[in-house]
Design brief:
Blueprint lengths: L2 E2 L1 H14 L6 E8 L5 E8 L7 E5 L2 E5 L1 H7 L3 E5 L6 E5 L5 E2 L5 E3 L1
Parallel strand pairs: 1-6, 2-5
Antiparallel strand pairs: 2-3, 3-9, 4-5, 6-7, 8-9
């Protein structure tokens, strides 16, 4: 399961509106090789999940993850921290045994 905080779900809805994405668009979260810790997160809006994707919904926002990325993301909580000292989207990934200082890459 992948969870969104209410703050993350609100920010996703706001970004869809700002980007002109359709209201039914889903946030796709992927894991890619690279980054300073071995893997990095990638997020983008997607119109239609494939049959192998898993869709999660929290607070009205939907997140879609491909089956390969799900192996690295299972149990993830996605939060959003705004404000003057905010970091943007914050990934709390129980599968990561190391992360970089910026929080956008991890190792397992």
């Amino acid at each position: 399961m992948i969870q969104l905080t209410q703050s993350a779900a609100s920010k996703i809805q706001q970004l869809k509106s700002e980007d002109g994405a359709p209201t039914e668009a889903l946030l796709r979260v992927k894991v890619k090789k690279g980054g300073c810790s071995g893997f990095s997160y990638k997020m983008e809006f997607d119109q239609q999940p494939s049959d192998q994707d898993k869709v999660f919904e929290s607070y009205g926002a939907k997140v879609v993850v491909d089956s390969q990325s799900l192996l690295y993301l299972l149990g993830l909580t996605l939060d959003y921290e705004g404000g003057l000292n905010g970091k943007g989207f914050v990934f709390s990934n129980p599968n990561a045994n190391k992360t970089c200082g910026c929080g956008s890459s991890f190792g397992v």
